[in-house]
């Protein structure tokens, strides 16, 4: 039995939650998964490992074997790859598997994969027997820097993104940077979009050489276990953790700042029928938000240029014509309609998270605005090649 317990990089304290949760981030930490889980859920005996076809074939057996060698009973449930798995049908599969394998309230679900697996598994864990154990094992850069931390779990409903969900914090997050070695380049780039979003929110936390790092990584010249990359992942987690701790359930509005770039991004993802990756949509959405900011006079063209450089170095699209999936078409009317359906609209209209950089290059702050006009939105969409 492996009983070596690595040291977590941080412990997340959500004031409204009964438990603190540790986050491990280390190359090779998956070989100590059982010990990590035993330290947070000592009374558990059985875990359902939820994954997708690709991640399951790469890491499923390793994870199950490690849990078994740590004395747990472990069963693997494999969902199809892609956003379509954030569905009611997947939830039913997971609930039934939990019942079939006799999961009790002391046991739980492990999400082994990207944000898709994390979101749907978290919702299954939140709802099965009114809430059981939940451990995130993110294997994409995007899920490491963003999706696995913060406790938002959801499925899509009726082409409406993340429409059914919950706030359910994990009991632990275990990130093995070795898993990034098998991640395809397009998915690596998608992860950088959320890093760049975080850099706009909190420049002091993210080093200003991120463009160089993104470029090295997209050219496969930066090892995914490199300390500079691990440092950036840890800094993104720290920024998100601080925002989430201040407003865990988005009740004061502060947590909304994490949605920078996401007003347009969610609409673009929906209109593309998820042909556009979440991170690619965020890259385009950041450009839209920045352009709106320029029109409102709170964001400077120089700051936009800086961000565009970051996006280009990370090999992210700056306009819809650069989107790799050529089957995807974006009609202005469809995008505008999808935006109105987004959860961030309220009775007084769409609420935009706008980056601010009024004096020179001082990035790192945002405003929430409800006064963005239809004309300004259309101008910003033209900027990314729509309309
Ligand atoms: N809950 C949150 O706070 C939050 C935040 C951001 C994004 N999200 C959600 O996350 C989802 C996107 O997550 P994602 O970008 O991780 O996509 P994903 O989960 O679809 O994973 C991307 C692809 O990479 C493959 N993959 C994953 N890890 C791999 C590895 N190590 N090696 C090889 N292939 C691997 C997967 O099989 C999949 O095909 C969206 O649904 C988005 O809404 C949630
Ligand atoms: Zn996102």
Core attributes:
17% strand, Rossmann fold, seven-stranded mixed β-sheet, alpha/beta, two-stranded antiparallel sheet, binds nicotinamide-adenine-dinucleotide, 2 domains, 387 residues, Dehydroquinate synthase-like, alpha domain, 43% helix, binds zinc ion
Write structural notes for this entry.
The protein is an alpha/beta fold. The chain has 13 helices and 13 strands. The radius of gyration is 20 Å and the shape is globular. The model has no long low-confidence stretch (mean pLDDT 90).
Summarize the structure.
The protein is of the alpha/beta class.
List the helices and strands and how they pair.
Elements: E1 10-12, E2 21-25, H1 33-40, E3 46-52, H2 53-69, E4 73-79, H3 88-100, E5 108-113, H4 115-127, E6 133-138, H5 141-147, E7 152-157, E8 160-167, E9 172-175, H6 185-201, H7 210-218, H8 227-246, H9 262-271, H10 278-296, H11 301-313, H12 332-340, E10 345-346, E11 349-350, E12 352-356, E13 365-369, H13 374-383
Parallel strand pairs: 2-9, 3-4, 3-5, 5-6, 6-9
Antiparallel strand pairs: 1-2, 7-8, 10-11, 12-13
Helix pairs in contact: 3-4, 5-6, 5-8, 6-7, 6-10, 7-11, 9-10, 9-12, 10-11, 10-13
């Amino acid at each position: 039995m492996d009983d070596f317990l690595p040291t977590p990089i941080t412990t997340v304290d959500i004031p409204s939650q009964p438990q603190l949760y540790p986050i491990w981030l280390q190359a090779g930490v998956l070989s100590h998964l059982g010990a990590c889980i035993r330290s947070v859920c000592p009374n558990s005996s059985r875990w359902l490992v939820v994954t997708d076809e690709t991640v399951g074939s790469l890491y499923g057996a390793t994870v199950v074997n490690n849990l078994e060698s740590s004395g747990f009973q472990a069963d693997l449930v494999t969902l199809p790859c892609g956003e379509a798995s954030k569905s009611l049908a997947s939830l039913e599969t997971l609930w039934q598997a939990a019942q079939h394998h006799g999961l009790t309230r002391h046991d739980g679900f492990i999400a082994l994969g990207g944000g898709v697996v994390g979101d749907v598994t978290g919702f299954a864990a939140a709802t099965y027997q009114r809430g059981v154990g939940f451990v995130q094992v993110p294997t994409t850069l995007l899920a490491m820097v963003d999706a696995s931390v913060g406790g938002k779990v959801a499925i899509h409903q009726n082409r409406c993104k993340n429409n059914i969900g919950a706030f359910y914090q994990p009991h632990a997050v275990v990130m093995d940077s070795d898993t990034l070695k098998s991640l395809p380049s397009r998915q690596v780039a998608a992860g950088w979009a959320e890093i760049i979003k975080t850099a706009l929110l909190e420049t002091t936390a993210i080093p200003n050489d991120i463009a160089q790092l993104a470029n090295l990584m997209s050219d496969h010249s930066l090892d995914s276990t490199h300390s500079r990359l691990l440092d950036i992942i840890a800094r993104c987690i720290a920024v998100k953790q601080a925002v989430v701790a201040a407003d865990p359930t988005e009740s004061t509005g502060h947590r909304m700042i994490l949605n920078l770039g996401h007003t347009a991004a969610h609409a673009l993802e929906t209109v593309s029928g998820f042909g556009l990756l979440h991170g690619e949509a965020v890259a385009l959405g950041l450009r839209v938000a920045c352009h709106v900011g320029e029109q409102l006079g709170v964001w400077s063209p120089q700051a936009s240029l800086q961000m565009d450089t970051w996006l280009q170095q990370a090999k992210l699209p700056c306009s819809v014509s650069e989107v790799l999936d050529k089957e995807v078409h974006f009609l202005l009317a469809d995008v505008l309609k999808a935006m109105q359906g987004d959860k961030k609209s309220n009775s007084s209209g769409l609420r935009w998270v706008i980056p601010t950089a009024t004096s020179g290059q001082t990035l790192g702050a945002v405003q929430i605005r409800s006064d963005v006009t239809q004309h300004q939105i259309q101008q910003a969409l033209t900027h990314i090649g729509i309309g």
